[in-house]
Every structure is written in structure tokens, then in C-alpha cells.
Input
Amino acid sequence: MKIDNTIAAVVTGGASGLGRASAQALANAGVKVAVFDISEEAGEEFAREIGGLFCKVDITDEASVEAGFAKARAAHGQERVVVHCAMVAGGGKTVSFDKTTGGYKRMATDQIAKAAEGIFTASYRVASIAALGMAGAEPMGDDGERGTIILTSSAASQDGQIGQVAYGGGKGAINAMVLPMARDLMDLGIRVNAILPGIFTTPPMLKVKELNEAVFDGLGKAVPFPKRLGKPEEFASLVLELMRNTYFNGQLIRLDGAIRMPPK
Output
């Protein structure tokens, strides 16, 4: 896919972290970018900075996502690229000791349901609404491509840590969806891939640094090479390559400095 001002893109979670870096890289390349985010003030400000469009979107609400796509398409035309970074997740250990009661408790099923909705179901929702729009678009280039969908999974989907049953399970469901979805959409010329980032300097990790710099430094040292956390710009660089290289399809690509964390 050519990356220029004829291409429109949607980036969910685009007001911060990996989504923000992806939206910035796309805008720098001349792409028309729609920033989907629940955070209205931050999203509006960032969209203005990059010359894009902000759409307030709750990825757990079908009508909200559909309205966001409608607004983006009215302004920029049919998106050819979707980068889905937004998520809503629950968490906790399967069974843990409760100091209040002096006994054991299990993580509520609601936490699993929250992660399933905010990670897996939301990813399907965004991807399928995008694919429906792309299906009616004119093919591009020699391969007849109509669009590409880039989902965000996690290294935790393959080697999740203690307390990541909900998160790792939700991200693992994305992994299982990528290949069959790519095959579902192959006759339409729509590609589907997922990036599995390791530990990146996103807002949650910067919060860890603020609370305990030693823990933050330890996470960086646990990465084989380079011995640091990933930069959001490095995630965004892979997004651009997945756009350019049409032969990437149905793939799960780890971006993690070779980290394989033992349980702690």
C-alpha cells in the first residue's frame, strides 16, 4: 500500500501511548488520520496538532463505534487502514488471599467478562465495521488491496504473568482471531495482522516509574536487547511497515526485544 495523502486511517486509542505514536507517524507520512478515543479533551488537542479529526468513541459501545466510523468517513472518505490500540481490561489473580476476611477469594467472573468485552469483542467490533466499509471500496495497486487492519495484542498473550489471566486471555483471543479473519477477508483484498508488544513506555509504565523507579528500571534490564522498554515510536514504525508490505497477512508479530518473562 502506498502511504500518502490519498489514504485515510482510523487509530483507536489514538490520544495516548501506542495509538498516539501510530497516529503521529501516519500523519507525518501524509495520511488523513481520524483519532478515536474516549478522552475528549486530550483527543481533540492531539488531533488538532497533527491536522487530523477527533471522534469520541467508546469501543465497548456498538453505536458509538459505528458513529465514529461514520464521522471519519464523512470527513476523510473510506478508511483504508485501521490501527486498533484501545482496550478496556479487568485484572487479578485467579485465587488470592484476602487479608480482610482471612481466607481465599477468586477473581470475579465479571473481570473476565470485562476483559473479553474490552479486548477481544471490541477488537472484532472495530475490525468488522472497518472491513464492511473497505469491502465496497475500489481496489488499490497491483494486488487489488482494499485495506489493512492492524490489531494490538500483547506478549502477555503468549507468556502472561501472574495476575494476567483476564488480560492475557483477552489478548490471546485476538491472536486466535487474526488468521481466520484474514482468510474470511482474503477475497476482498483486506489484510489482517496483529502486533504483540512487550513492555513499552506507555502511560501505565510511566506511572510505574513515578511510583517505583527501581521496579521500572528492573523491567528494562529484563529485556535481552536492547536493555530498555520499547518506545511507542518503534511500535508506530512497525505499523507503517505492515501498511507498506502487502505480503504481511494473518501474522502475529512480537515486538519485545526478545523478552520472555518468568513468573514472579
About this structure: The first helix runs from residue 17 to 28. The chain is about 45% helix and 15% strand. The chain has one domain: 8-199+231-255.
